[in-house]
Design brief:
single chain; 240 residues; Spore Coat Polysaccharide Biosynthesis Protein SpsA, Chain A; eight-stranded mixed sheet; 10 helices; 41% helix; 22% strand
């Protein structure tokens, strides 16, 4: 398969109507929908999601056993073809026409392919990359997207910490694209439902502290353009 611009990695379970709405928004608001693929992961015991008619040939459904979100995310990445990956949910409304070109433009500022761009989820804003957008080169340098051990939470925090460490090393590659709005419909409900898993995820997250510093240094060595503007760079929003 020829390389696409963007691969959306989207785990889903039991929310068919929300998923339909999410997929419709992804393609209807994209500037170049033909350059996007969506990789779904569906648990093999989730019959409604397994049998749901897919709305578009660019949506690829992978069915398998339930697994931790970290491992699932890395599994979908290995099956993707895009030059960039976007971690997504099944409860999102894409509010911004041309969101794909805006994110590609933000990441495209760095020709070496080291960057973490992210839009506005309507809840966390600039504070957290809830839906990270990463060049494939970055993922390859990291050896994947996140630790397999993470069950549900901390994937976004894990990535943010790596790029904050990278900033300390002299390369600011965090880009918050404020005018790309991915409205997260069930953000508060999802947080409550998975609270019992947070302690386990917190321990797994803390165990990777030293590894995150190593990964930041690995990214730093791959950077061909060292940004010395510090915090100012992060505050510069992509509006083109």
């Amino acid at each position: 398969m020829s390389r696409l611009a963007i691969s959306l990695l989207l785990p889903t379970r039991g929310r068919c109507e929300l998923l339909r709405q999410t997929l419709e928004g992804v393609f209807s608001t994209a500037a170049d929908a033909d350059s996007i693929e969506v990789l779904l992961y569906v648990d093999d015991d989730d019959v409604p999601s397994r049998e749901m008619p897919l709305p578009d040939a660019r949506v690829i459904r992978h069915v398998g056993p339930a697994m931790r979100m970290g491992r699932l995310t890395n599994e979908l990445f290995t099956r993707s073809h895009g030059e960039h990956v976007l971690l997504f949910n099944d409860d999102i409304i894409c509010r911004t026409p041309g969101w794909d070109h805006l994110l590609l433009g933000a990441a495209g500022r760095f020709r070496d392919g080291v960057c973490l761009a992210y839009g506005n989820d309507g809840v966390q804003g600039a504070n957290l990359p809830t839906f990270p957008f990463l060049p494939r080169r970055t993922c390859e340098l990291l050896g994947g997207i996140c630790p397999d051990e993470l069950r549900h939470d901390y994937i976004d925090t894990h990535l943010l910490d790596i790029f904050l460490c990278l900033r300390e090393l002299g390369a600011d590659r965090l880009v918050y694209v404020e005018n790309v709005l991915f409205e997260h419909l069930l953000a508060e409900k999802t947080h409550v439902l998975n609270r019992e898993l947070q302690q386990q995820d917190e321990l797994a997250y803390l165990a990777w502290r030293d590894e995150r510093r190593y990964l930041a240094w690995r990214l730093r060595r791959a950077c061909s353009q060292i940004d010395s503007t510090g915090e100012k760079s992060r505050q510069q929003h992509s509006r083109h």
